[in-house]
Amino acid sequence: MTAVARGPRGYGMPWRGAEVARAAEQAGISAFCSGEFVDHEAYSMLAEMAICTERAEIGPGIAYAFARTPYAHAAGIRSAWRHAEGRVFLGLGSGAFRINRDWFGVEADRPVARMSDLVGAIRAWLHAENGAPVRYEGEFYRIDATVGAPVLGRIDAPVLLAGFNKGMAAAAARVSDGVIGHGLFTRTWWDDVVRPALEKGAAEAEHDRAPLEHGWVITAIDDADPERAAEDARRMIAFYLTVKTYDPYVEHHGWTAQVAEIREAFARRDFAAMGRAVTDDMLDAVAVYGSTADGRAALARRGDSLPRDIAFLAPPSFLVSERRGRRYAQASLALLGDGTGEPA
């Protein structure tokens, strides 16, 4: 892979509504993303972002990949593109096997191969031209469509994959435009696992461009109560680490004992104990938290432990009210200085 010069890192945030977005764009936020769970759906939020923003990139970050057909993913992107041409990206995440099976009622075996095939099928719809058949033949997806109405036309929206472990990270570089990093990512996880996998995937595909790096960064800033911000960040980290899919990450960092304590506390729904089990070194490696001054120092210290293209400053959401989440989002804007989008 040929080395490609990168521009300065941009900063984004998960969507917190139009009012926050107006202030955020003025402060220099260059991207917004939507998450997804049982109480919020990625593409309806994407439509709101398209209508309520002016300059920022927007996209699902992530949408559950296997919960929808390639047609549905592509139609959601195409709808947003009409209002925000050239500003839309698509982030896809495989989701846990049990969520796919038990919540969505869909197949999710061989997730790397299935995701790679899905990206090809989505791009068949996104790249479809008026008057031409839409065809794709893959292992998991097959498309053979003729659309008589002149409503298509090629859309080159970047596709990114949530690549937590090295297999999906390699696929992100091989078949898509890059990766969306998880809020748990640390300097060593980026450097020892994710970036080598990205390089491997790009080399296998003989790409001459560097894969994009987007990613979430747990960010809790509160000048009036920095300790509360730290507690919320600890609980967010703990909640993520209840997922056994992340065991290779836990072992890589030597946090097995702490995570066992977290999971024991979660089993008895002792959320305070979950947070206490997150040690200071874990918190410092993962999150940006505390006062504005603390947060600025953390951003300066983290450097390349952040995603290189867009870092989404993401307020904690576990046991955090919507109102407090908006306050965290607004407070994080002070980390960016004078509206240039660069850390102060």
UniProtKB/TrEMBL annotation:
Pfam families for this protein? Bac_luciferase
Could you state a single Gene Ontology molecular function term? Answer: oxidoreductase activity, acting on paired donors, with incorporation or reduction of molecular oxygen
Domain of life of the organism encoding this protein? Bacteria
Question: Does this entry carry the keyword Oxidoreductase?
Answer: yes
User: Which InterPro entries does the entry link to?
Assistant: F420-G6PD/mer, Luciferase-like_dom, Luciferase-like_sf
Any idea which UniProt keywords this protein has? Answer: Monooxygenase, Oxidoreductase
Q: Which SUPFAM superfamilies match?
A: Bacterial luciferase-like (SSF51679)
User: What name is this protein filed under?
Assistant: Alkanesulfonate monooxygenase SsuD/methylene tetrahydromethanopterin reductase-like flavin-dependent oxidoreductase (Luciferase family)
Q: What is the taxonomic lineage of the source species?
A: Bacteria, Bacillati, Actinomycetota, Actinomycetes, Streptosporangiales
